[in-house]
């Protein structure tokens, strides 16, 4: 068992916490836009880009960034031009990017360990440079979400009125998609493709069981993700298990508990509380 207070563990824990906060913040916007599957598709696209870059002796992070950004733009374009059916493109890219990733891993036998690291993550192997990079990009994403909080919320819940008031709803839709792609890339090296797709969707899905407003949903999503990540991280270190796998299982258990205790799943006999829940969520 590793020393839980060693600098290596502390650095890995900081990286996990940063990745959790950024992912949960993005998760709220992605899930409320009905794009829960986008996280998985972006993660697979980033994995395909990273592994393909490895086979070409190129920078895997750059390859992941290009692939995920291209898919994010394609997803937004399909939602805009094909009657909102972005799910068709998500399904198509999800399968094809997985096939590309598998093929690239098979062709990159000299780099198989690096390719595997992008799949399952290696938070304990994070370097000082990668940690600084993660913190810097994470801060940029959070600052953008804070600066454009009102616009993103308005265009999310009432895009027609936002358009009438002069807001460029198209810009904010692409902005959140590109931020999700960027979040996926910085998570890929830390927690891997498998856990990244869970972190993009699960936080908001779990918090939605209790929250009745956008702000509460965001705060509860961050709290849920931090609890799952820190608890899973500590358990994995103590039991010498894969960190990303234990965090994923912890988040699954939290979701099951949340589903059982959910106030929204209980029968509400009063029509007033149902109407109140719908109205307050948009406030």
Question: What's the level 1 CATH class of the domain at 7-202?
Answer: Mainly Alpha
The fold-level CATH name of the domain at 7-202 is ABC transporter involved in vitamin B12 uptake, BtuC
How many individual β-strands?
0
Per DSSP, the total helix count is 12
Low-confidence stretches: 269-279
Strand content: under 5%
Kindly report the average pLDDT value. 80
Distance between the termini: 48 Å
Structure at a glance:
This protein is mainly α and about 280 residues long. It is built from twelve helices and no strands.
Q: How would you characterize the overall build of this protein?
A:
This protein has helices at residues 7-32, 38-55, 60-81, 86-107, 112-120, 128-147, 149-157, 159-164, 169-207, 214-239, 243-261, 271-280. By secondary structure, it is mainly alpha-helical. The protein has a domain at 7-202: ABC transporter involved in vitamin B12 uptake, BtuC (Orthogonal Bundle). The longest helix has 39 residues, at 169-207. The chain is globular. The N and C termini lie far apart (48 Å).
Write the layout of secondary structure elements.
Blueprint: H1 7-32, H2 38-55, H3 60-81, H4 86-107, H5 112-120, H6 128-147, H7 149-157, H8 159-164, H9 169-207, H10 214-239, H11 243-261, H12 271-280
Helix pairs in contact: 1-6, 1-9, 1-10, 2-3, 2-4, 2-5, 2-9, 3-4, 3-9, 5-9, 6-9, 7-9, 9-10, 9-11, 10-11
């Amino acid at each position: 068992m590793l020393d839980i207070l060693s600098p290596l563990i502390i650095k890995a824990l900081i990286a996990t916490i940063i990745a959790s906060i950024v992912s949960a913040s993005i998760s709220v916007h992605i899930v409320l836009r009905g794009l829960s599957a986008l996280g998985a598709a972006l993660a697979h696209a980033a994995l395909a880009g990273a592994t393909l870059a490895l086979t070409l002796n190129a920078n895997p992070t750059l390859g992941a960034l290009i692939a995920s950004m291209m898919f994010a733009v394609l997803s937004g374009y399909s939602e805009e031009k094909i009657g909102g059916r972005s799910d068709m493109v998500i399904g198509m890219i999800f399968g094809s990017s997985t096939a590309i990733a598998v093929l690239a891993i098979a062709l990159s036998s000299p780099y198989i360990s690096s390719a595997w690291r992008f799949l399952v993550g290696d938070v304990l192997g994070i370097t000082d440079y990668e940690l600084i990079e993660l913190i810097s990009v994470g801060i940029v994403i959070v600052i953008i979400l804070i600066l454009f909080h009102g616009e993103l919320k308005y265009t999310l819940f009432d895009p027609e009125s936002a358009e009438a008031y002069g807001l460029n709803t198209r810009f904010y839709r692409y902005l959140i998609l590109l931020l999700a792609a960027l979040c996926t890339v910085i998570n890929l090296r830390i927690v891997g493709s498998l856990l990244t797709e869970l972190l993009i969707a699960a936080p908001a899905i779990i918090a939605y069981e209790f929250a009745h407003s956008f702000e509460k949903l965001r705060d509860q999503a961050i709290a849920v993700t931090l609890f799952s990540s820190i608890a899973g991280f500590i358990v994995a270190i103590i039991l010498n298990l894969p960190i990303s796998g234990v965090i994923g299982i912890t988040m699954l258990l939290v979701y099951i508990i949340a589903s059982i205790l959910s106030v929204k799943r209980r029968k509400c006999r009063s029509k007033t509380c149902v109407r109140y829940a719908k109205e307050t969520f948009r406030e």
